[in-house]
């Protein structure tokens, strides 16, 4: 049995879906867990802090509170994200910039704020939640795919900048996950998606959460700049 050092963990967008499951997983492992949310609450046992990742002052205030109550953030899971799906010819400038500013810009803001404490401590785990769509592409998701692909370049640049300071930066790229969003899809659409997945099923949020927890743990200290798919084989070769 391996022992895991208790860490202060922050999961952005931890009030629902994958983020909620990730926060629960770290709580189960005995970590001190904070989540940011624009509304709603994280799981029992977590500290929920209101924050908007598109606003640097809001991010700074959230970190200041977390540091005061739980200590400096040692594990950052940048999960907050939005979608504004529509075909390219119908996509407005706002549809594009809002998604990129939240999904990619938001990750930049929280990583930058967390990095100060990680550099000082000479330890850090940065996990960026991307998507199979960021590597595979998807019609109607030019904005979302661009934002999620950008996280790969971010993680690899962070690895080169911060790797010598005991900090890793990795990307976890989920495929189709069984959440309220997928449950709401028409049955025909769900069947169409399932037909493209070699595993022939959607993942559970817990399956993503366990991978995130592992890559943020003591055992994965020599893994950095990696893209870890949790997609049932959907994006193989990408």
TrEMBL record:
Chain segments annotated as transmembrane: none
Coiled-coil spans in chain: none
Residue intervals of the Ketoreductase domain: 7-180
Keyword annotations: Oxidoreductase
Superkingdom, natural source: Bacteria
EC number: 1.1.1.100
One GO MF term: 3-oxoacyl-[acyl-carrier-protein] reductase (NADPH) activity
Enzyme class: oxidoreductase
InterPro entries for this protein: KR_dom, NAD(P)-bd_dom_sf, SDR, SDR_fam
Protein family according to the UniProt entry: Belongs to the short-chain dehydrogenases/reductases (SDR) family.
Protein name (record): 3-oxoacyl-[acyl-carrier protein] reductase
